[in-house]
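TASK: fixed-backbone design
INPUT:
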């Protein structure tokens, strides 16, 4: 077994109450990292999109308590705080809480995201059966607040504290999407993910001399509960067909990018298939 060198490292994982974030938290903890999770419950009971599986709304409405408990029962260390990353004041407090629990944050995983399908096409009602909204100031602002501005502020806070303590080791992994350059039917989501790619690549160039690597990871469609039978059928008919990943498979790639073995990988956009 190759030692990834993560024992005792402190990781901050956003959007970690379910899906990829929860899997990443568990995987990092399994390698000995102390993991601080942040999340925001989305309770859409009675207001969700009927095209999305009911189970998806259920898991997104859960706290991160079960993830923290599972990590601790396995002998790891984890703590969590629920906060809305759309609020800029949350960012420094998030680092304060992580430091109080475990010490300075050395690994930042930008996983949290906001999503709602929107479109430029007038009167277009749906994609994959999902309800679509027209592009508006509201759809733009909400996507960019969580998916772009929050990661930028998290990276900036990470860098400030890293430099202030004279640290020489750090990892930033930002999750993105294959539709970032242009995402019909999910216009604001794709654009906001393209922005976080740019922020992360800039961080790779600017923070590299400080011993920090920053990379973008683009998973394939990942079954975090949102993939309905209709979506799965359409993905299978694509050319080439999409492979649907499990959150644990994406988490393995996150652990690798945080590892000692990835020390020479910086400023890369890694696309999983």
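OUTPUT:
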């Amino acid at each position: 077994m190759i030692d990834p060198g993560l024992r005792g490292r402190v990781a901050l994982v956003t959007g970690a109450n379910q899906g990829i974030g929860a899997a990443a938290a568990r995987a990092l903890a399994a390698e000995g990292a102390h993991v601080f999770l942040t999340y925001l419950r989305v309770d859409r009971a009675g207001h969700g999109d009927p095209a999305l599986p009911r189970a998806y709304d259920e898991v997104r409405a859960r706290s991160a308590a079960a993830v923290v408990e599972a990590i601790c029962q396995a002998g790891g260390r984890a703590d969590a705080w629920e906060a809305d990353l759309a609020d800029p004041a949350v960012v420094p407090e998030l680092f304060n809480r992580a430091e109080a629990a475990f010490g300075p944050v050395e690994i930042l995983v930008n996983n949290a995201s906001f999503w709602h399908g929107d479109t430029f096409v007038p009167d277009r009602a749906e994609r994959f059966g999902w309800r679509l909204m027209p592009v508006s100031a509201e759809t733009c602002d909400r996507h960019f607040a969580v998916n772009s501005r929050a990661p930028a502020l998290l990276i900036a806070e990470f860098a400030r504290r890293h430099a202030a303590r004279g640290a020489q080791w750090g990892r930033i992994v930002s999750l993105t999407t294959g539709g970032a350059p242009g995402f019909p039917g999910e216009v604001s989501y794709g654009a906001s993910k393209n922005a976080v790619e740019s922020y992360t690549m800039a961080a790779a160039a600017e923070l590299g001399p400080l011993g920090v690597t920053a990379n973008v990871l683009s998973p394939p469609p990942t079954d975090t509960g949102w993939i309905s039978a209709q979506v799965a059928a359409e993905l299978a008919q694509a050319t080439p067909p999409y492979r649907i990943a499990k959150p644990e498979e994406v988490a393995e790639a996150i652990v690798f990018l945080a590892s000692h073995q990835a020390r020479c990988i910086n400023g890369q956009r890694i696309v999983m298939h």
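COMMENT: The chain is about 40% helix and 15% strand.
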